[in-house]
Amino acid sequence: MRKTNLNLFIHKKTASLLTITALLSSLLSQSIYASEPTAPILPGMTKAKLHALIQEAQNKQGSADKSSPSIIADDINTNSTELINVIVQLSNQPAAVGRYAAKMGYRTLAAEAIEANVQSEQSSFLSSASRKGINLQVLHQYNTVLNGLEVSIQANDIPKLAQLPGVTSIHQNQVYYAIPVPMDVETQGIDNPIFDINPLKQIGADIAWDKGFTGAGVKVGVIDTGGDYVHPDLKDAIDRDYKGYDAYNQDKDPYEDVPPAWDKPGSSHGTHVSGTIVGRFANPTSEFVQKGVAYGSDLYLYKVLGGAHGTGSSAQIIAGIEKAVEDGMDVINLSLGSSAYKDPNSPDSIAVNNAVLAGVVAVVANGNDGASLPYYYSMGSPASAHLAISVAAATSPSRHYTSSLESTVSVSSVTYATYHLNPSLVSWRTDETQFDSSLGNQTMEAVFVGLGRQVDFEQAGDLTGKVAIISRGVIAFEEKVVNAARSNAAAAIVFNGNASFDISGDPNGIDLSEEIPGRDGPIGTLSRLGGDHKFLPTFDMPGKEGRALVRTILTTPYSTLKISFGSTFNQVDLIGDTVADFSSRGPNSDNNYGIKPDISAPGVNIRSTIPAYGKDKPDISYDEAYGRMSGTSMAAPHITGLVALLKDKYKDVDKNNDGMEDWSPMDYRAALANTSEMIRDADGTLYDVYSQGAGRANIANALETPALLEAIDPLTIYNSKLDPISMESSASSVSFGVIDPKLNKAVTKPLQLKNMSDNVLSYTASVVMHPSVTSDPNKPIPTPDVNQISMSLDGLDANSDQVITVVPNAQQRFTLSALASANAPNGVYEGHVLLKSAGHPDLHLPFVIHIGEGSDNNQFVLQNLTLSDQTINGDESIDLSVTINSDTQKYIVIYATDIEGIGENEPVPTVGEIFNFDTEAHMYRAIPRGKLNFHDIRNSFGLTLDSELNVNTTRLADGLHNFVVLSYSDLTNPVDPSTAFKSFYVSSEPVPTQTPPPSPPASGGGGGYGGGGGARPEEPKENLELIQSIVPQGQASVSVIASTTMQGKQLTAIVADSDIQKALDAAKSAPASIVVNVGTTDSSEAQLKLTNAQVLKLQQAAEGSTVMFAWNGATIASPVSAFTSVPIGADYVVRITRDASSASIFAKQYPDASVVGTPYAFEANTVVGGTATPLSLAAKQVFKRAFIVDQEVNASKTGALYIENDQVYPVPALFTAAGAGKTIVTISRPGFSTYAVAQHQTAFADIDSSWAKSHIQLLADKFLLSGTSVRTFSPKNNVTRAEFASLLVRSLGLQKPTSATPFKDVLSGDWYAQSVAIAYEAGLVTGYGDTFEPNASISRQDLTVMLTRALKLLPVVKPAGLVTISYADAEQFGDYAKDSIQYMTDAGLMDGVELSGSLRFQPSEPSTREAVAKVLSSLLKLSKLIN
Questions:
Q1: Fold of 5-64+865-987
Q2: Beta strand 1131-1138 with 1183-1189: parallel, antiparallel or unpaired?
Q3: Inter-CA distances, 765 with 708, 768, 772, Å
Q4: Which of 321, 773, 962, 1402 gets the highest tally of CB atoms within 10 A of its CB?
Q5: 656: which DSSP letter?
Q6: Where is the SLH domain (predicted)?
Q7: How far, in Å, CA of 797 to CA of 1321, rounded?
Q8: CA-CA distance, 1246 to 254, in Å (whole number)?
Q9: pLDDT value at position 109?
């Protein structure tokens, strides 16, 4: 076997220049050549040549990297001198974002996005362009949903434009289309003489109407081809002088394009869409009318597409969105898009997102490319917009008839062929379904009319009384049927064929092959049009028989074809509710496998209004101005109508009295998605989430739900330097992205239940996996075993692991976690979170998990080009990686070039080359596919000077540059490389010097990072031992250097977003302690401020991670799980204070105690608009804090106290000896306060004979246990249920309750009322229905139940390898206590007694005070809360 050498040819002179390593396969041996000339000798690379190669490759395959936007879009040829129209986006946020930000508390965004700032920046941009001599013409200025301009400019001036201050992106003014009616699509429908009720009933619209909701007063904007606003079924919905805006022609008349001649079509798409939403069913002269989903709503038209094919530019799309937002639309419908443009951050997608941020619901068709390749990732833009409601198309109920017929081909009286068939009758003229009499037992002459186009029928001659034989292909099935009816044919037969095409792609005939994959059987449901006044009886013939029949006709001169129909036609009804095959599939191209579409709605064979163009022809008839169309364009307006119905109910709800409706656009999306109905294919298999989203909408459920289930999904926008900024959004689905099962770590996603009602709501929560879902029909694969994924919900009610309760008009957050088993096979797993509440609609939220190293299946040769950092600072280095998705690549070269690369002939700086050279055969072989990693890339690059590979070095100037990767498969003709590129920024400013991070514990690992600006203090060494003492054993610590400022005696620390990301990357999906360590001798107080964006980012850390803030001998660890309690838009501030003045409070309430050292105060707040609110915590969200006492203490004789509401309480504390005679005090509890170390003497006269004396004395000295008097403890006395609840609450340091208990025998004035309420909230006690029996003695088995709940709350891991102990009196155990007794026995906290030679637990015996002292002491030691 030949040995393979992977060669990395490095352009460098010294070792300090650049080091590259490639990590592919352990089977490969690596040889690094510094000068051996085995690298391919390619023509010299200049910047101009490189740019041309990049441009050519991008035009062929699109961008290989979607992770962040470049300033200049990939599809702009900046070598050209032609004038082109481009959209220039500037850095400030548009005004719509500012208005939303002000409501949500995003103060920085609100200040940035005021219209004055937007206008000022645009004026400055134009002035800068003028000063630089850049000639451009401003065509349009945007300020509402996009801060930018449409300009006309020479393409080769665009790089200069990109260098102007504030420019963040330049995109070509793209051409967009009305989502077209698919050819030969699945079209179904049941005839109705008035209006087609079936799609409306399918989504529950009729139920909404019965409840009185019609969309009245809701403004609906249709952004499309305009509309025929004089149509009788539309005119009353738009009966006003202002009807909208025509961005296509830039006027105020958004009318459809009128046909330019009798034989040329006009536009019609917008009229059809509008009728689906607002049709008023008012046409007085037609037997047909159109009833819209929200027929009471008000229609506004925004014409952005024009011509018969419904095309328009991105500038026109954006202008239409802008105008709709300015006009105050409640909901906008965009049945348009570009399947080739998949970027979720394209200008039009940004405009859609910003319209939503302005409070407008945006509904977008998901696209009609599902039947094309690729199947997945077939959706485009703007359906990819994160905040849009993207809609898939579903089928509706349909009807067809079975039949039989015989076809004969004869010449004179000689029969050449006879075919016996049983085709389905799939379309007919409305009300003419008596086929037994109209066709039964009749024989008719048949004529082959090719593809059934109008020209084909013209060439076929008179078809009166004849049967038209038609091949499937090229035009829509409906159009073939209508053309046949117009020809006066008696019937039509369409067989499952296809066209043949010439070299230019034009149809030039019929493909009559004997076999055509997928087209040998009948067309099936794709052909089932149903009834319409424009149709005639049409049959669906299998393709194989149809082609054979036509071959016989064409090869038999002078032949006659006759069709004999059978005598019976049997009716067959289908329920529909399947996803249309043409409906585009997700996932979203957002690098996270985001779920799109969001929801499904009827979109197949939808009857609605079409234009008759009567604006200037008042006598024109609208009797037949109705037609059927199919596509997601037809599905989207159904959802738009449903939003209008919901708006009818909730638009005016303003419980906050802030002048804005309580329901956000994301809430409307959630209401429809949560209550939708999951649908299945014809075989009963559940559709995958990338096909149907959450399911098919049902407004009957959405109108009744009092609550919403949402995922707290981060939304990313971009600042002036293209740095990502995260904002919190509310999504109707959640993607876990890719999970690596080898890590054996759970990935957690935050969710929230939002109560929109005035009542307390409780739901039972569960996770439902989808064991079998659909896949790509072209490459079907089974669903992987869902049992390999463990899903769990956390943060539910403390008293239940299944119930979540939320108070009125509030939200309750909880989490969904996924843990993949080590053996989980690669694949896509999915399921949904299900919430059920009696009397309310069920709520569900879909989720998806990808297992294994995955990438967007874009079929690019080079994929996932990523950088460890977007900036090279000074002489610092970054890492680069790229994945080879091919087995044919022989040579890869990486260049570093400036962003323009135009018209320059100097050589291009080179990072390095990779090739696989076989030294024995002296030939280049393919580089193995896989991931290549390049480390230690600095701003010092090789510069090849000649063919001898002499190398010089060069440094890049400050500014924006590109890494360009070229990959060649053919070295004999290296002209067509695959490309990938990534922008990076060069700064000559070095990263400030950093102090190394603290050493991690012996069993952990860690690393240090720096970033940010301002003062960069060294990490105080005095805090290092303190930090190490509270880092969990085995967990890594990662240090983040903070910038600090002083105001008076208060020190404030902040950290950079990039440093947080580096810390998360260093943790590698494992739990970690992220440490911020600061200190000054001048400060008496310190605080760490985290922005809301940073809080959202930190929520992505692995479960069990913490953010540790250390200052001047004190530290507090904030668990990232607690960040789910931070409200939308709020910052997080944690503060530590030396609080010497509080010593007097402790001394006053504990006069016999002496305070040791200085008390410390710890607090955590959420901050919105300058208003601080204490962080709300659940009992499980334990904060660990530690501080140093400047003396040694006896741990068994020392305790800790804390102040809450001016009262002093004891709290468990762990004391650890530190260096220099000091002591570290560690306190863990779910709360914040001022803490002090204290000592006192306790001497009980009655415990000497007690078997639990040491436990009693220990807890008493720690303030945790009191006597029945100063000198007596009464060890043999029984303990009541109220007393033990109080002891347990005190021992765990739980926070005070937020509400009273539900127990009628616990009164507010009782001494134990507060403790019982705390215990109930924490889930430690449940009571007996509505009673607690506080004064009853607590039995031993009841004691085990409370203790078990306490252990699980902490939590404490039960010791392994235990031998099960059996009790002789086990039959006396209560069913509720059996597991708890065993748990306590295994944990060693309780045991039995020997009686009569057998071990008994005595479950009903009361618990004594001495027994409780022993149990509590053991519990606190086991949980490491005390020494």
A1: Immunoglobulin-like (2.60.40)
A2: unpaired
A3: 13, 10, 22
A4: 321
A5: T
A6: 1239-1297, 1299-1361, 1364-1427
A7: 8
A8: 94
A9: 41
DSSP-assigned beta bridge partners for residue 238: none
The SS3 assignment for 763 reads: strand
State whether residue 936 is helix, strand or coil: strand
Rounded distance between C-alpha atoms, residue 411 and residue 421, angstroms: 21
b/e map 1142-1160, b = 16+ CB within 10 Å: bbebbbeebeebebbbbbb
Given the residues 313, 559, 633, 730, the one annotated as active site: 633
Q: Tally DSSP H helices, then E strands, for the chain.
A: 28, 71
Q: Rounded distance, CA 669 to CA 672, Å?
A: 5
Q: Are 931 and 892 in contact (CB under 8 A)?
A: no
Indicate the residue type of 581.
D
Q: Is 527 a catalytic residue?
A: no
Residue ranges of the chain assigned to CATH 2.60.40.10: 708-851
Give just the sign of the alpha carbon dihedral 185, 188, 191, 194.
Answer: negative
Give me the catalytic one of 224, 577, 667, 713: 224
Q: Does domain 83-173 have CATH number 3.20.20.30?
A: no
**Amino acid in position 1418:** S
The two three-digit tokens of residue 318, written as one number: 């954006």
Structure tokens at 446: 């048949």
| CATH for 398-574, options being 1.10.1740.10, 3.10.180.10, 3.10.129.10, 3.50.30.30 | 3.50.30.30
Closest of 398, 545, 546 to residue 472, by C-alpha: 546
> Where would I find the beta strands (DSSP E) of 919-1011?
923-925, 930-937, 941-944, 951-954, 959-968, 978-987, 1006-1009
In the set 269, 832, 850, 961, the catalytic residue is 269
Residue 220 has what pLDDT? 98
| β-strands 414-421, 530-531 pairing | unpaired
Element (H, E) at 1348: helix 1340-1353
Give CA separation, 22 vs 866, 894, 977, 1137, 1314, in Å: 14, 13, 20, 50, 63
Between CA 1021 and CA 1218 the distance in angstroms is: 13
Other Cβ atoms less than 10 A from the Cβ of 757: the count is: 13
pLDDT of residue 61: 31
Helix (H, G, I), strand (E, B) or coil at 417: strand
- The predicted model scores a pTM of 0.64
Locate all alpha helices (DSSP H) within 1122-1252, ordered by sequence.
Answer: 1143-1149
Mapping DSSP onto H, E and C, the string for 330-363 reads CEEEECEEECCCCCCCCHHHHHHHHHHHCCCEEE
Q: Tell me what pLDDT residue 33 has.
A: 28
Q: Is the peptide bond preceding residue 1119 cis, with omega within 30 degrees of 0? A: no
Run means of pLDDT, 10 residues per run, the chain, 1427 residues? 45 28 25 38 59 43 31 78 86 61 42 57 80 85 77 89 83 66 40 73 96 96 96 94 92 91 77 96 89 97 80 84 94 87 72 89 92 80 92 89 86 75 88 89 93 91 94 84 94 91 65 83 78 89 92 87 90 87 87 92 91 92 88 95 97 84 94 97 93 97 96 60 58 92 86 94 96 91 94 85 90 91 93 96 97 57 73 82 86 75 61 78 82 82 55 73 82 72 71 39 33 47 79 81 86 88 80 86 88 85 88 90 81 91 87 89 87 80 89 89 88 87 89 90 88 89 87 89 87 75 84 86 83 88 86 68 73 86 83 83 88 88 85
Most distant CA pair in the chain: distance in Å? 128
What is residue 953's predicted lDDT score, i.e. its pLDDT? 75
**Are the C-beta atoms of residues 297 and 237 closer than 8 Å to each other?**
yes
Is 269 labeled as catalytic in the residue annotation?
Answer: yes
pLDDT for res 1129 = 75
In terms of C-beta density within 10 A (0-12 exposed, 13-18 middle, 19 or more buried), how is residue 805 classed? middle
Which tokens is 475 given?
A: 């035009």
Whether 35 is catalytic is no
The dihedral through the CA atoms of 37, 39, 43, 46 has a sign that is: negative
